[in-house]
Amino acid sequence: MNEIKLFCPASVANVSCGFDVLGFCLDRIGDEMVIRKTFKKGIQILKIDGQNLPLETMNNVAGVAGLALLKAHPVGFGFEIEINKGIKAGSGIGSSAASAAGAVFGINELLGRPFTRKELIQFAMKGEELASGVPHADNVAPVLLGGFTLVRSSKEPDVIGLPTPTQLYATVLHPKIELKTSDARAVLKKNILLEKAIEQWGNLAALVSALYTNDYGLIGRSLVDVVVEPHRSALIPGFHDLKEAAIQTGALGSGISGSGPSMFALSKGKETAVLVGEAMSKSFESYSIEFELHISKINPEGIHIISSK
Ligand code: HSE
Questions:
Q1: How far apart are the CA of 307 and the centre of ligand 1, in A?
Q2: Per-residue model confidence as pLDDT tens digits over 257-268
Q3: Does 210 share its domain with 103?
Q4: 208 in the same domain as 131
Q5: How far apart (Å, rounded) are the C-alpha atoms in residues 79 and 150?
Q6: Residue 243's closest CA among 258, 228, 218, 262?
Q7: Catalytic one among 149, 164, 181, 249?
C-alpha cells in the first residue's frame, strides 16, 4: 500500500465532568486526509483545503504527530499529507485531534501497522501539545478508538474504551467563531476547592458507571461540571440560553464541547436529539452569529479508511 485516504471524525472532549480525561467520537462530521509514501524522508504537508493552517511540518499538528511516530519507528522513506478540513480550527470539536490522529493512523497503516490504535495515542498527543500547550488525549483517544474513552493517565498513556448506551445521541451547536484552546485554558484556575473536587469526581465516576449500565437518568444527573464550566461559560455566547433550551426540550444534559465555543447535549433517542437541536438553534438565532448544527450518534469506530492503493 502506497497511499491511503481516511475519514477523521470530530469529537467531544470533557463531556462536562471529565475535564481532560473523557471524550466521545462523533459520526460523519470530520476531515478527509490523504497520506502517501515518498522517497523524501520526513513528512511534508502538501496542502490543506478548507482552513488557513500552517504547512510547515513542525508547526502543523499532523506533522509533529507523524514525526513522533517516525522517531519511534524510523524508516528510510517519508510521507506527504493532504488534508481537507471539514472541522474548523478553534471550534471545540477536536479539529487538531482529527488531523493529529489521522496522520499517525494513516502512517501506521502504510507501515504495516507496527503500532496498535491505543499505542498511536502517545504520538497523536504531540499534535495536541502543539495546538494547546498541553499533551492531553481526551480528543485523540475517541478519534482513534471510537465510542467513549477515559484517559486514566496521559503521562504513560493509559486509556480505557467505555461502552455506549445504544440510544444515546449527541446534538452539537457550533457557533462560527474561533476560540483557541490555549485561550480557553488560560482562564482556568490552577487550584480548586476540595468540595468542588468531590462533586466533580462523584459525577465522573457516576457517568462512567451509567455508560456501563445504560442508566440514562444517571447520565443526566452526572453531566455536571463545577470546575471548568463556571470559568469558561463566559467565553461562549448564549451559553446559559443554549443549555436551558436543551434541558427544557428533554436533553439528558448539556455543556461545553471541549474548550468551546461549540455546545453539546446528550439525549436518549434521535428524535429528542433533533428536537433539542431545533430548540438550541432557535435560542441561538438571536445572537446573530452564524452556526452549524450536528445531530450525531456516538461513532463506535473512530477513524476509518475510505480507500487505499
Ligand atoms: N480537554 C481539552 C480542554 C479539550 O478542554 O482544554 C480541548 O482540546
A1: 31
A2: 999 999 999 999
A3: no
A4: no
A5: 31
A6: 262
A7: 181
